[in-house]
Amino acid sequence: MGAYLSQPKTDKETNSGRSDKFHYGVSCMQGWRMDMEDAHATVLDLEEDSSFFAVFDGHGGKEVAKYAAMHMPRLLRETDAYRAGDYGRALTEAYLAVDTRISRPEEREALRQLKGGSEEGREGAPGAEEDQALPVSALPAHILEALGLKPGDGMAIRIVRGEDGTNELHFGGGGEDDDDEEENEEEGDNNSDEDVTDHVIADKPSAAEEAVAASEAKMAKRKREAAAAAGAGPSPQSTPVEAPGSPASDGSRSPFDMKAEEEEAAERGNAPPLSSSDSGENEEWIGPSAGCTAVSAFVRGDRLFVANAGDSRCVLSRRGQALALTRDHKPDDPPEYSRILKAGGFVADGRVNGSLNLSRALGDMEYKQSKELGPEEQTVTAVPEIRTLDLKEGDEFLILACDGIWDVLTNQEAVDFVRERLLKGMSPPQVCEEGCDNMSVVVVVLAKYGFPQLIAKGQE
């Protein structure tokens, strides 16, 4: 399970701002979680007649969300597309610019400082809120076949972050004894500020485990077969996500391929290549293992551009009716599922490689290491979906919020909740403060169109 505090932190960070066009409020609360991993950006005057609002919901650490909130508004203005007036494309370029920057070695120290604080008890792999032990029945049939397993074998598969930062498949018994194992039994140097503390579960040897892993060489072969099966296996009918200028995809090495090659090299006495992200000083830096969702709204004149990667949302209230401007990016959605398989990954229990419950995010660089693929083709991509529309009379307010809000409210319920309170005279920050655990929400009232004053006056 994920790590939680013994008592929730209910203090709320609330801010607000106003201009002739907008009146916004934002509120954040940590709740039961070990860290507040959300961040936000609110810029009323990005440029003349331009404003930017965004929510970044972090997972596996807070550093990527904070970095994105600090730098994305400036990176947006600096894109070629922004200067050319192509603002939808500019948002895509800004998202990718964040991903590019955080993978640079020179940004490593900045990310470490943003991480800050104690990491003791932090969740394990990015996005994981539960023990990552999967029954074999949770894996797709073509992967089970490649591994030589059957759904009724009574085994569990654990995805464990290795010392080199890559994910490994560990096979073991699926009984109750496994649930009682002590976490973090493997010894290692956890004193480095750059170490990401993971919950590593060491399986006890079992007859089933010995049968499956008769030798390291045999296991390496099975992993290669699993990767090949994942890349060629069946998937729901869908149109792959593509972007202009993307290179053709003709296959790539998955983490299973690379791990198998390292094991074979070790058998030959050769040292494996450096491949980790942020677990040690001497390892090659590929970027942070932490990540975040990103939902943003850019307004230029009366034109609204919304960009989204992940499961945070942006909703518009149009005459009291909820208009969804984003869709959640989940691994088992057909377009996302298709891309994940083509990149060499798999989906189990609704999670990418059994670990991450999002298919698009900033950061999470371990899922973006296929050199032959473009950024929009990686197992997890930072490329956002863009939606544009013209704001008009009757458009009342925007809600941008992390999934903590949408786990308990539908889009329409959220609009009703906000609208009722605004019409009663509450300010946007006051409305935002009535939130839930581990949440961040931004409410942007579209004051240019007379809400809520004109509507409230008409109801008198």
Describe this entry's structure for a reader:
With 460 residues, this protein is α+β, with helices and mostly antiparallel strands. The chain is built from 13 helices and 18 strands. Strands 3, 4, 8, 9, 10, 15 and 16 form a seven-stranded antiparallel sheet that branches. α1 crosses α4 (108-115). The chain starts with a strand and ends with a helix. Residues 165-287 are annotated as: Disordered. Its cofactor is Mg(2+); Mn(2+). InterPro entries: PP2C (IPR015655), PP2C_BS (IPR000222), PPM-type-like_dom_sf (IPR036457), PPM-type_phosphatase-like_dom (IPR001932).
Please give a quick description of this structure.
The chain is of the alpha+beta class.
Give the overall shape, derived from the CA principal axes: globular
Query: Largest sheet, if any?
Result: 7 strands, antiparallel
Average pLDDT over all residues: 72
Could you tell me the strand content as a percent range? 25-35%
Low-confidence stretches: 117-132, 175-280
- In total, the number of strands is 18
Backbone structural class = alpha+beta
- Measured between the Cα atoms of the first and last residue, the distance is 52 Å
Fraction in helix: 25-40%
Rounded radius of gyration (Å): 23 Å
Individual helix count = 13
Protein name: protein-serine/threonine phosphatase
EC number: 3.1.3.16
Keywords: Hydrolase, Magnesium, Manganese, Metal-binding, Protein phosphatase
Cofactor: Mg(2+); Mn(2+)
